[in-house]
Amino acid sequence: MTQVLDRPVKTAPPVSGAERTARRRALLEWIAIHSLGIAAALFFTLPFVFVLLTSLMSDTQALSRDLIPHTWEWGNYRKVFDTPGFLTWWKNTLIYAGLGTVLTVVSSVPVAYALAKFRFRGRNLSLMLVISMMMLPPQVVIIPMYLFWAKQLDLSGTLWPLVIPMAFGDAFSIFLLRQFLMTIPNEYVDAAKVDGCGDLRTLLRVVLPMAKPGIAAVALFQFFYAWNDYFGPQIYASENPGAWTLSYGLESFKGAHHTDWNLTMAATVLVMAPVILVFFFAQKAFVEGVTLTGVKG
């Protein structure tokens, strides 16, 4: 025979009215906060979903009101790649965005380092000039710049008038890097100089490893700008189809396939995909670099 022992049963303490009100309020706050986040996410995501779904439709369905493809036409992307010139546009865009980003970072870092860590007469004036260049629209100087590159150097029909100026720094990149470098304590720089490092070695060995988030943010800004740039290629490269970029070539592709919305959307997806992938893998460094640029002025 087994003996059953009577054990005291633990009962939960009664919930007071104040606790129920607090829990209900916390639940409502959670729903309100996350509903706004979901609404914002849908606001930015649904257009891309619409473009992606339309790119996978057939020619006739793309002109209808249907939102979901009846058959998934993955061959639309192959048709886009088979379009004459599309791979050339890809190559030109990679050269423009990649080389331009490297030149911008290499030329902007020393200037930003000097404005952030050096003490010299006219430093504040130099910073004001950099800021004023940020406020100057490119359309203001486009005529003299075009005459210089096209008439004096005979570089019209190429992307070099857009790439070469990036080797001389960018006002926005210099300002953003300067603001980030201001957050690095001067004690690190002083300690490196006490150990015998010169200014260049201090920059390369001490400052740059600590400034990786800021450099990543500047590189991403410049890469996105060059990848999506339409105005520059239109001015300098429009006369030569062999120098077109994706942003300018997409306009020509749309004109040639103005009734084939599925192919136009497929080309749009192929243009947007690299930017989305780059930001997805580098978003942590990008956000960190942007958020720390205004900590110290």
Tell me what the structure shows.
The protein is an all-alpha fold. It contains 13 helices and no strands. Helix 3 crosses helix 7 (about 170-180) and helix 10 runs antiparallel to helix 13 (about 260-290). The radius of gyration is 28 Å and the shape is flat.
Question: What is the topological layout?
Answer:
Blueprint: H1 17-55, H2 75-81, H3 86-117, H4 123-135, H5 142-152, H6 160-163, H7 171-181, H8 186-194, H9 199-210, H10 212-228, H11 231-236, H12 246-256, H13 261-291
Short précis:
68% of the residues lie in helices and 0% in strands.
Largest sheet: none
Beta-strand percent range: under 5%
Helix content: 55-70%
Q: Please report the distance between the alpha carbons of the first and last residues.
A: 82 Å
Uncertain residue ranges: none
Entry keywords:
mainly alpha, single chain, 0% strand, flat, 297 residues
